[in-house]
Amino acid sequence: MVLPSADDPAVAYNKRVVLASTIVVFIVSNGSYIARLFARKKTGARFQADDWIMGLALPFSYIPAACLLYGLTVGFGEHEANVSKVDLKKFNISLWVLQRGNPPCLLCVKTSILLLYVRLFPTRMFRRVAFGVWLFTLGWAVAAFFSNMLQCLPIAYFWDKTIKGGHCIPNALINIGMTNGVLSFAGDLVILSLPIPMVWKLQINNRRKMALSGMFLLGGFVCLTSILRFVALAKINVKDITFTQVDPGIWTYIELGIGITCGNLPLLRPLFGRFFSSGSRNGSSATPYGASGSKSYPLSRITDRSYNGEGFRCMESGAKGTGLDVDVESVGESGSEIELNVKGNGSSSAEVASGEHGSENSHAGNGINVRTEVDLRIEQVRAEIEKETAKIQQRR
After folding, report:
1. Disulfide check for 67: which of 94, 201, 262, 379 has CB 3.0–4.6 Å away?
2. For residue 59, which of 20, 109, 115, 113 has the smallest C-alpha distance?
3. Where does this protein have coiled-coil stretches (predicted)?
4. Which residues of 95-128 are buried (b: 16+ CB within 10 A; e: fewer)?
């Protein structure tokens, strides 16, 4: 029976949704990575491994995007009864190709995020846990890639059911897709929660702990898209695959795009430094990163830095009676809110850009040594500002 197509509002809606969602996710995911590159350039920091690997995730995400758009030309979104056999074969080929991009893209995204975590929290225990999570992610990606690819034997039987002796796993799109999705979702939850205990062990005020936790928990949007993808997969009807595959196909690409975007967002702070620095404690109109007209610079006010049993440097309050508290606003090479450098020999250093503190602050409270290394770039900017200020005063 041929179902209404051209005049069917559901078919027209499917095609609009596929087109709109694909374009929007493509722009957002690519835009977030471009913004990440600009943030790197703004701070003058060198590219790290996590930047390159996140960039590698983008080409893999183009695979499902291209397949979704191509599918619209061969019956995607219409009822299968209205799709010719030639177009149906082309659609099934595009569906098989679409599945190839998902595992490697998510592997790159998760690897990039784990590398960022390891750079922010470089303790031996954390590295081991992160490496274990990465091994699980790698195993999942390999299993997901080959299980989808080999769901039909020979492989061509997936799109050409006239091949004699061919067979497929029953309800492969649902059974394999759901299994792989659940395992990926479990890995997402672990990666999402991994940095939170480390953040709450930092000796900083609760407001900053909550801000840092919120930054790392942005990946929760990926978990939400995974759940919505599960719901869509459960509704697939293999007898009307071109129509019922719309929602799973869309959420598959959205999951990749949101994963890339959430992985980039924590590193965009340098682009919005003016907003983050508006609440400067010293009350000055601070302009971030030594921009012209600034009166102060991002500070790392760190006092006692003791060593806990887990190999993580605690940032604690100073000696009793000093009245000093801990306020960390350091921006490391990653451009993120906080970057700790903990050396394996038991010593530590905090790289800071200070407009108020100099080398005379290398000791704080009861002889506790606090080493501050002034960023040369910001010092150069300060020197230029002082020269310009002196010239203005001479003219007056």
Report:
1. 94
2. 109
3. none
4. bbebbbbbbbbbbbbbbbbbbbbbbbbbbeebee
